[in-house]
Amino acid sequence: MSHDFRTPLAVIRAASGTLDADPPLPPSDRHASTQAIEREVEYLDRLVANLLDLSRVEAGSLRADREIYALDDVLTRPLERARARLGGRSLEVAVEPVAVLVDAVFLDAAVGNALDNAIKYTSDGARIRVATAEPGGGRSA
User: Fold this and answer.
1) What global pTM score does this model have?
2) pLDDT in the model for residue 101
3) Any idea what the Cα angle at residue 111 is, between residues 110 and 117, rounded to 5°?
4) How far is the C-alpha of 117 from the C-alpha of 125, rounded, in Å?
């Protein structure tokens, strides 16, 4: 867990240090630094929110609020966040617009966590694939 906090903090520290560079950085480099800071702060915010949600689930005070959503719509946000962190990896998405009964917040967090782990534990050049499939592999029983 400490690594999960220290890595984004190191990025934020390094990027913020470049903003006061003498001589000043070119605008494109300053923009890249501010984007890195924003991306890592968003990651830390999600990490803290996930920890708080986990403690609420364990205490029994957080329950799923399930509704029907189009799966491709619910996955848009976690996929966009992952694309910003891919580095040298590629993301292949094959998600159908099927109706699902889910808690959209929980699904966003679960998919976001899975994608964060895929990015964290794969090397540059790796392909990360997100796809939908029928329950049971699409076979009839």
Assistant:
1) 0.63
2) 95
3) 90
4) 16
